[in-house]
Amino acid sequence: MSSTQGSKTFLAVMRAAAFTLGVTACAAQDQQPVELLVRGDDMGHALDVNAGFIKAHAEGILTSASLMAPAAYFDDAVARCKANPKLAPGIHVTLMAVIPMRPVSAPEQVPSLIAPDGFFHRGLEDFSKANPKIEEVEREVRAQIEKCVATGLRFIYLDWHMASNGGKDRPDIVALFQRLSSEYKLLYTHDVGDFDGRYSGAKYFSSHLEAWGTQRLPNGRLVYWCGPDMPGETRLKFLDTLRNLSPGAWYTICHPGLYERRQAQSVDLLCSQEVKDIIRARGIRLISYADLRERKFGRK
């Protein structure tokens, strides 16, 4: 065989090998499962909220729960999570709240986080105007984490309530959250901004199961409330999204509850036979932040 023929044969073999590897890679991608993480936010807010979480988990597809350390029913939320060990708990850092809440820290230690009425600022607008000091933010976030750790419940991840990361104007708070997550061995999540999965390993899609209305009061305060009945198109869109999720890990966020009508309808949908049938038919694997944390850091 001439050197020219040998070169042609070698190139043909390499092309065939590359084609085979490409086909194998495509097949592996096709075989990648569809994974779904359903996270509930604001556990501890109220007793009906806590009960809604457990119903959505025990009877539906909720897999992870974000707990608010300053909330009135935090202890009840911890007890319910301990009784349901497959529900992965996270720390829902709360530095502002619609329902009046006070910080875990002594008020005199975090004055820039407190509104004139003695409670947290009610939303991002007031929070941004107050421009809380980063050292006070760190003091309060540490206090919330330590309160969670002290319960004996193994918390898995850290995220934030409303815009407690300070929105786009406070990268120093975002950096703080990331640093403390690393320090306390918590999986850091980027809330609704993780569209490519770079933080937790799962990509975000919006379910819009709840809608939060706002109104400006005569005194200038912006107040929020849960929206009215869930529109039929919202329900259908959620079902259609589940039917069409591409392979890979995905997560969405909801706000379970049994008292507010829209929240109760969200729980009912998560527990519905329609959703379960889609999960079964598509072979969707339900995962939690515990699974994502293990993939990132290994079993600990």
Verbal overview:
- The chain is of the alpha/beta class and 300 residues long.
- It has a single domain, classed as Alpha-Beta Barrel (TIM Barrel).
- It contains ten helices and ten strands.
- Helix 3 links the parallel strand 2 and strand 3.
- Helix 2 runs parallel beside helix 3 and helix 5 packs parallel to helix 6.
- The longest helix is centred in the N-terminal third of the chain and has 29 residues.
- The termini are far apart.
- 39% of the residues are buried.
- About 8% of the residues have low confidence.
Please write out the topology:
Layout: H1 3-31, E1 34-43, H2 47-58, E2 64-67, H3 74-83, E3 88-93, H4 124-130, H5 134-150, E4 157-160, H6 171-183, E5 187-188, E6 203-204, E7 212-216, E8 222-226, H7 232-244, E9 248-254, H8 261-270, H9 273-282, E10 285-286, H10 289-297
Parallel strand pairs: 1-2, 1-9, 1-10, 2-3, 3-4, 4-5, 6-9
Antiparallel strand pairs: 7-8
Helix pairs in contact: 2-3, 2-8, 5-6
Index terms:
single chain; 300 residues; alpha/beta; TIM Barrel; eight-stranded parallel β-sheet; two-stranded antiparallel ribbon; 10 helices; 10 strands
Short description, anyone?
The chain has 300 residues and is α/β, with parallel strands linked by helices. It is 43% helix and 16% strand. It has helices at residues 3-31, 47-58, 74-83, 124-130, 134-150, 171-183, 232-244, 261-270, 273-282, 289-297; strands at 34-43, 64-67, 88-93, 157-160, 187-188, 203-204, 212-216, 222-226, 248-254, 285-286.
